[in-house]
Design goal:
Shape of chain A: globular
Structural class of chain A: alpha/beta
Oligomer: heterodimer
Shape of chain B: globular
Number of strands of chain A: 12
Largest sheet of chain A: 8 strands, parallel
Distance between the termini of chain A: 52 Å
Strand content of chain A: 15-25%
Low-confidence stretches of chain B: none
Order of helices and strands of chain A: EEEHEHHEHEHEHEEEHEHEHHHHH
Distance between the termini of chain B: 80 Å
Low-confidence stretches of chain A: 323-336
Largest sheet of chain B: 9 strands, mixed
Number of helices of chain A: 13
Mean pLDDT of chain B: 95
Structural class of chain B: alpha/beta
Number of strands of chain B: 38
Helix content of chain A: 40-55%
Largest interface: A-B, 45 and 65 residues
Radius of gyration of chain B: 32 Å
Strand content of chain B: 15-25%
Number of helices of chain B: 43
Mean pLDDT of chain A: 88
Radius of gyration of chain A: 22 Å
Strand order of the largest sheet of chain B: 1-8-18-19-17-20-21-22-23
Chain lengths: 336, 1197
């Protein structure tokens, strides 16, 4: 039997296959099913500070501000001591998940203000989160903000959060940095304990009928995996950070690839939204079968063997464009 | 047994409360069952009870009372009766019409000697008009039920007498109706020493409680009640209760005494205040007695021999108690009643008092009969002031005082009224008085409530806050009157001289006399964007003059700017509150700021930190922006305030409506008013409220003439018209039009989209639904939001011109969603909420049938925006025709409309028979034409009107008796379109029985249910139309049962045309349904999805949200047309496709569902699943029904 035990963010997991941040974690039953199917940890859906704020302000505007406006109606919805619109619903769900599953639960945060990040991180820690995943995502539209400015701001956030909690902090990155390795090093220096490679986003689209802009979130496919594999392979020999792969893992074979490139854990999201939480077992079974079939006794043994440090043809990771170009010009055997 | 506290005064805890909350707190803790139904101004008591039970707050016995909302007050009374019958302590709350609906059960409950307390926020009964305000006409209509009647005059008393009522009823077995004045007491916030649980516990007699429980129906000890008795038994049985009534006053005395031991607050059945040797005394009850008390103290200090006798116990009437406190020196008495009993010898209290005196004189217990006169005051919350009290004493001092009088009005018809000096004021200078003019939406009242709380609870001062609202639901104005002083405040009337006046919206300066009450040297605070240095010059002459002459200290702040920069939109409540404390100096400013911040945390913190954060920022930045203005010694302008009603207006509008709109209705004499409550229509157009920040402007180059804008506008403030090009002659500069290009038969005509800038509420729906985009600049649409100030003058002129343009004839053009919107709306500029989802249906109804429309309108939002003075939104066309509208009650609207139908049909039948009788004297084609089967389209109506006109010409020359009758009835030969309109509270709940009965008839009535899925007018209480999963008041944790399928119930009759529509997302189906419903010869029921602010989202999104309701199957569209059976078709047609959107996608966008999820995600998930199941099952049922083919019915005759 192949040993899948993995250490990630100070926690020993039964399996490197974990649940990535997704709407699945809104539903405790689904999470319980995924854990029963072998998921080694659960990353909760993201707490978006901006959303919390906009919901608070909307409630203020459409519920609280309609109080005392009319002689006949004291307000138009029940007096609402009964619910709060801060982080509380998220924290309650976190606590519930902690109570229901016996694997680590990682809270995921997306903040917009310096105070917001640290406040929410501390609150998550207090309510039992085993780690924090910072979901760093900025949509830059300003012509005046340079890449350096953005990175500095993000690093300040990482540092502030990492120093405000005693649990490990991992950072979920977008692929859009000029130098991902340099950014990862700075994240490491800022006090983070891991990175998650890579975030996926809502994509804007154009509605030709209404001349409008739309946005949608499409599920990933295995085709998105190679970009992640590359980053893992490049990073894993050079960083002490725990590496999580997310985006594009749909089979046990995909998971094996990520492992070979250096991922400590593999986060599943789209595949479970498509096939249900119990599909974790299929992926683990496939991964285990491949490892066994290939002769590995543990996942640790396979981890990183195809990284840039140890791969037999490591230069391939470095010269993607160049190699392709040469291949295109290379004469095929038999050709004149 | 718990002993009384050693020093009850010191140990008292004070809170600032209104009577509704104070009373509810006592009633809740002393009850096990609470059956409720919302009605103004008592709704808040039920809402508090519901909220506390949702929070699992226990009663005195550690249990959470069962709180149940019923379908009507009649239902609540029935539930109360049952709960009492089986031994549970039970209470309820009501007012006005609700109390009338309870009467039958009150007789029963009292007849059975059942301990029970009913708390009433006393309110005017509807007579010539409805009024939500306060007087005693409701409780006086219940005085014969056998209930004891106890009256409170202020919130402290209301709380205390509530407790005393619950205690005494148990011992005496007489049920108690405890009442206090609606709004003046129910809503006025004052400092109240609260009652703790221990006090309540000690007050209750445990033995009496055990006896009450023991009397509960119990099969272990069976008995029967509610028997029917015969002449041999009934009378004696009825008299058997008499000892209980005789014993009541003494038991009440004992309870008062016990209460005084516990709290040091003393009460008596009658309480006399004034000179012990008074010669003149006023006898009265309720809040007015507080004003009289204050005035009497003022007068006796000046040596006058006057007094006031406050009546607390009105039933059982105790002459012994009355006479015990009435000084024997009294020789003149004025008995004041806050009710009117037309045609009576006198109002109820007067009769009781005079009878008591006459009996006393007759039996020798009193030496002489004082002269007793009776007066009416304060009806419908009319002001009752010290000056009026003085005028009553002056009248009593006359040789021959009026035996019956009114005070507070000028009665130039019957001469009943006493004059009073409106400038007289007795308020001492150590009471700080402030007036705040605010908008309903800006948070002024909430801020003032917070201020009262701070001063009332953090300082030794006594505090009072009274709030007035107008009856508009959009752009409403509020006036707050605050008093703070060293003594309990008995001034139960408006502040007429204030040391502080705040104007929270600068528009008030242009529309009303806001500084009339400013005392010399008053501090003035104005929220304005005008820079401080330009402010004085920007004011109209009248305002400048007042500020100069009164030497006011004026301060300005751009409150909107501060609030907007802090991310609070236009909520300026905390900003202005900080300014008030900075200027008024009622307590050290730093302390005040700490208290305000604490109150912000307490009020908003429960929702999350952001609102708190932004308010704190606003508070911290406000004071720096506050600037004092130096008022020059001379005025600097000749500009007068623009008249509220401008231009040439009808005589009635000039004489009456204008005065009401100016806020001076109190000055109008009796003669100004129609004696039967009949008012002219077409008057909302004179208001020109200009409440929008932004209005739409039309980019005609992009317009596709879809008319979506005019079809969705809730206020008919954007209109569309097609007209002949020559009508453009004389158009003002900038008036826009384009070539009509939709209808071939109207080729060559012009088309205009016109905004009524001063009638628009700025809801933005027209812009939201406008589909026409500039291809080169997609953010530019055919309608764009622009600041009102920039376009007001231009668009005002354009709209005035637009109204003069005659519409092209639309005869022959099929009525569909586009052409319907070209027809003239005869419902315009109502006071409904911005974005209202109800009013577009009514507007459309008037566009289709307005010139022949008769409407019966149930009480509710639609009767308020449809019929609340000062103006009417129903209007007339160029021929003077338009909707004829009436509201009867809440519960009876279907029957009311049904009666109208019977009447109209009878008159039409009589007219037709007379035409038949006279046919030989009429031109051949005329009689034949007149008697042809009625059509429904415009062409038929026009032709029939022409025939009626021709008939009148013939009749004018005919001296016969039948011609005379026919002249009076001939107009009935043109069909009347009868629509019965109301909300879901009426149709699903309180009026359902009547609606069901009317639908079961074969009469040609049309019913339009404006379904907001909640009681909107009274503030969002659940109805049986509330969907599963939604939170509403009385369903705080989310309604667990499905929405009643009213349409399905109506379909079960088979002959009723039934449809469900959603106009904002599928207006074509709505138009078709309204046409079919009108054509259907029997009853029709149209259930209309009506987005409402009570759903908790921005109504600008209501078209999308309504589409989600339809697409998710939560609001299926269909029509059930019985005539299809005869054509061999299934009567039910589904007009919306198979649900294609998950119910969650619909629910997650409305706060009423979202708050259920936030409270408990498990419950939400459970309710969501149940809602999904409901959608599936309903769809499956409808789909099967839509396939059913029924055999046609045999035609009778």
């Amino acid at each position: 039997m192949v040993d899948l035990r993995t250490t990630w963010l100070d926690q020993v997991l039964a399996s490197p296959v974990v649940l990535g941040a997704s709407p699945l974690s809104h539903d405790v039953e689904q999470i319980v099913a995924a854990v029963e199917a072998g998921a080694g940890a659960v990353v909760m859906y993201s707490l978006f500070e901006e959303q919390v704020i906009s919901e608070q302000m909307a409630a203020h505007h459409f519920i609280d501000a309609r109080v005392d406006t009319n002689a006949e109606a004291s307000g138009f919805l029940p007096d609402v001591d009964v619910f709060s619109l801060g982080a509380e619903p998220y924290l309650k769900q976190l606590q519930l998940l902690r109570d229901k599953v016996n694997v680590p639960v990682i809270a995921s945060l997306n903040g917009t203000t310096p105070g917001g990040w640290t406040d929410y991180a501390r609150a998550c820690e207090a309510r039992g989160a085993d780690a924090i995943e910072l979901n760093l995502y900025d949509v830059i539209t300003s012509l005046d903000e340079s890449g350096k400015d953005v990175e500095s701001r993000q690093l300040a956030v990482v540092q502030a959060v990492a120093h405000s909690v005693n649990i490990p902090v991992t950072v979920k990155l977008s692929p859009f940095y000029t130098s991902v390795p340099a950014m990862v090093r700075r994240i490491e220096n800022a006090g983070a304990r891991g990175v998650t490679i890579f975030n996926r986003f809502y994509q804007p689209d154009v509605d030709l009928e209404t001349l409008g802009v739309d946005r949608r979130l499409t599920l990933s496919t295995s085709r998105e995996l190679p970009m992640r594999l590359h980053a893992l392979a490049v990073l894993s020999p050079h960083t002490k950070l725990d590496l999580a792969c997310t985006g594009g893992v749909h089979t046990g074979q995909d998971a094996a690839k990520a492992l070979l490139c250096g991922a400590d854990v593999i986060q599943l999201t789209s595949v479970l939204l498509e096939r249900g939480p119990a599909y974790v077992r299929t992926i683990i079974d496939e991964l285990r079968a491949w490892l066994a079939q290939t002769g590995y006794v543990s996942s640790d043994e396979a981890r990183g063997v195809l990284s840039m440090g140890t791969a037999p043809d490591a230069h391939v990771w470095e010269r993607l464009n160049y190699i392709r170009l040469l291949d295109g010009w290379r004469s095929r055997p038999g050709a004149r | 047994m718990i002993a009384a506290p050693k020093d009850p005064v010191r140990s008292a805890k004070y809170k600032t409360l209104d009577a509704n909350e104070a009373v509810a707190s006592v009633a809740y803790r002393l009850s096990e069952v609470i059956a409720i139904y919302p009605i103004t101004p008592a709704s808040a008591m039920g809402e508090h009870a519901d909220a506390w039970s949702a929070d699992l707050k226990p009663n005195l016995w550690g249990r959470v009372p069962e709180v149940a909302e019923m379908q009507s007050e009649g239902g609540a009374a029935g539930a109360v009766h049952g709960a009492l019958m089986t031994g549970s302590l039970t209470t309820t709350f009501t007012a006005s019409q609700g109390l009338l609906l309870m009467l039958p059960n009150l007789y029963k409950i009292a007849g059975e000697l059942t301990p029970f307390v009913l708390h009433v926020a006393a309110r005017t009964l509807a007579t010539h008009a409805l009024s939500i305000f306060g007087d005693h006409s409701d409780v006086m209509s219940a005085r014969m039920t056998g209930m004891a009647l106890l009256c409170s005059g202020n919130a402290q008393e209301a709380q205390d007498l509530a407790a005393i009522s619950h205690a005494v009823t148990l011992r005496a077995r007489i049920p108690v109706m405890h009442f206090f004045d609606g709004f003046r007491t129910s809503h006025e916030i004052t400092k109240v020493a609260t009652l703790n649980d221990d006090t309540l516990r000690v007050l209750l007699d445990e033995g009496a409680l055990a006896a009450f429980r023991a009397r509960g129906l119990d099969p272990d000890h069976p008995s029967i009640r509610g028997t029917a008795q015969n002449p041999d038994a009934w009378f004696q049985g009825r008299e058997a209760c008499e000892p209980f009534y005789a014993a009541f006053p003494a038991l009440l005395d004992e309870t008062f005494a016990r209460f005084a031991e516990l709290t040091a607050r003393t009460y008596q059945c009658f309480e006399y205040v004034g000179a012990p040797d008074a010669d003149r005394v006023i006898i009265m009850m309720g809040s007015g007695a507080e004003c009289a008390h204050e005035t009497v103290e003022h007068l006796t200090a000046q040596g006058e021999k006057v007094g006031v006798l406050k009546v607390r116990l009105f039933r059982p009437w105790s002459p012994r108690h009355l006479l015990a406190v009435l000084p024997t020196s009294v020789n003149r008495i004025a008995v004041l009643d806050r009710t009117k009993e037309p045609g009576s010898a006198g109002e109820p209290l007067l009769l009781e008092v005079t009878q008591a005196l006459s009996d006393a004189v007759a039996d020798g217990t009193r030496f002489a009969m004082p002269r007793a006169v009776g007066g009416r005051y304060g009806l419908s919350s009319k002001e009752f002031t010290p000056a009026m009290v003085k005028s009553i004493f002056s009248e009593l001092a006359k040789n021959k005082p009026k035996s019956r009088f009114t005070v507070g009005i000028r009665d130039d018809v019957s001469g009943s009224s006493l004059p009073w000096d409106a400038d007289d004021d007795i308020e001492p200078d150590d009471v700080q008085r402030a007036i705040f003019f605010g908008l309903g939406s800006d948070g002024t009242v909430s801020a003032n409530k917070a201020t009262i709380k701070i001063i009332g609870e953090k300082t030794p001062k006594y505090a009072q806050g009274h709030f007035e609202y107008d009856s508009r639901k959009s752009g409403s104005t509020t006036i707050s009157y605050l008093r703070f002083g060293p003594r309990p405040i008995r001034s139960t009337y408006r502040v007429s001289r204030a040391q502080f006046i705040a104007v929270h919206d600068p528009e008030f300066l242009e529309r009303r006399d806001v500084f009339a009450a400013a005392m010399p040297g008053a501090t003035i605070l104005v929220n304005t964007v005008v820079p401080a240095e330009k402010f004085f010059d920007s004011l109209p002459l009248e305002v400048q003059r007042q500020l100069v002459e009164k030497h006011c200290h004026v301060h300005v702040i751009d409150g909107y700017g501060v609030a907007e920069r802090a991310g609070l939109g236009r909520r300026i409540n905390t900003v202005m509150q900080a300014c008030y404390f900075a200027l008024a100096q009622v307590l050290p400013f730093a302390d005040a700021m700490d208290h305000i911040k604490a109150s912000v945390v307490a009020t908003y913190g429960r929702r999350g930190a952001e609102v708190v954060k932004r308010n704190i920022v606003a508070l911290d930045t406000a004071i720096a922006q506050l600037k004092e203005i130096t008022i020059p010694s001379v005025i600097s302008t000749t500009r007068l305030r623009a008249p509220v009603v401008q231009g040439k207006v009808p005589e009635f509008v000039e004489r009456v409506t204008r005065v009401l709109l100016e806020g001076n209705g109190d000055l109008l004499p009796v003669s100004a008013f129609p004696p039967d409550g009949t008012w002219p229509t077409g008057t909302s157009r004179f208001e020109k409220r200009a409440i929008a920040q932004e209005i739409p402007t039309w980019n005609e180059d992009l317009c596709v003439q879809c008319n979506f804008c005019s079809m969705i506008c809730p206020h008919a403030a954007i209109q569309t018209k097609v007209y002949a090009p020559d009508a453009l002659a004389g158009a003002p500069e900038g008036f826009k039009s384009i070539a009509q290009d939709i209808y071939p038969t109207l080729e060559g005509m012009r088309y205009t989209v016109q905004i009524a800038p001063e009638d628009c509420t700025g809801c933005g729906l027209c812009i939201e639904v406008c589909p026409a985009k500039d291809r080169k600049q997609p953010s530019r649409k055919a309608l764009m939001a622009t600041p009102l100030d920039l376009y007001r003058e231009k668009e005002r002129a354009a709209f005035a011109f637009y109204e003069t343009i005659p519409s092209a004839s639309l005869t022959g053009i099929e009525i569909e969603k586009r052409s319907a919107a070209l027809r003239l709306p005869l419902f315009e500029f109502s006071g409904a909420c911005a974005g209202c989802g109800e009013t577009p249906y009514i507007r459309l109804l008037t566009q289709l049938y307005g010139d022949r429309l008769v409407m019966a309108n149930a009480t509710g939002c639609s009767s308020i925006y449809g019929g609340n003075l000062p103006t009417s939104p129903y209007t007339t066309n160029a021929e003077g025709r338009g909707p004829a509208w009436a509201n009867s009650l809440f519960e009876d609207n279907a029957e009311f409309g049904f009666g109208m139908r019977l009447s109209l049909d009878a008159q039409a039948a009589r007219a037709r028979s007379l035409v038949a009788v006279m046919s030989h004297r009429l031109p051949d084609e005329l009689a034949e034409g007149l008697l042809m089967p009625a059509g429904h389209d415009d062409a038929y109506i026009a032709l029939q009107r022409a025939r009626v006109h021709a008939l009148h010409q013939v009749l004018a020359r005919d001296p016969s008796a039948e011609a005379k009758v026919l002249r009076e009835l001939a107009h009935h030969l043109v069909p009347r379109s009868l629509w019965i309109v109301g909300g879901d509270g009426w149709a699903y709940d309180i009026g359902f029985g009547g609606l069901d009965h009317v639908l079961a008839s074969h009469k040609n009535v049309n019913v339009l249910v404006l379904d907001t899925e909640v009681y909107s007018n009274t503030g969002g209480q659940a109805s049986k139309a509330t969907p599963l999963g939604a939170a509403a008041k009385f369903a705080t944790s989310g309604k667990a049962t499905r929405k009643k399928d009213l349409g399905l119930l109506a379909m079960s009759y088979g002959h009723v045309y039934v449809a469900q529509v959603a106009m904002q997302s599928k207006s074509q189906q709505t138009v078709e349904v309204l046409l079919e419903a009108e054509r259907h010869p029997g009853p029709s029921l149209v259930i209309a999805h009506s987005p409402c602010i009570a759903h908790g989202y921005d109504l600008i999104k209501s078209p999308q949200q309504q589409k989600r309701a339809v697409d998710s199957g939560m609001w299926p569209l269909y029509h059930y047309d019985p005539s299809r059976v005869d054509r061999g078709e299934s009567p039910l047609v589904l007009d919306s496709p198979e649900p294609r959107l998950d119910v969650a996608k619909y629910m997650e966008n409305e706060a009423r569902f979202r708050m259920v999820e936030l409270r408990s995600s498990e419950r939400y998930a459970m309710l969501l699943d149940a809602a999904r199941d409901g959608v599936k099952q309903r769809r499956a049922l409808y789909e099967q029904m839509a396939k059913i083919h029924l055999p046609p019915e045999h035609q009778n005759g």
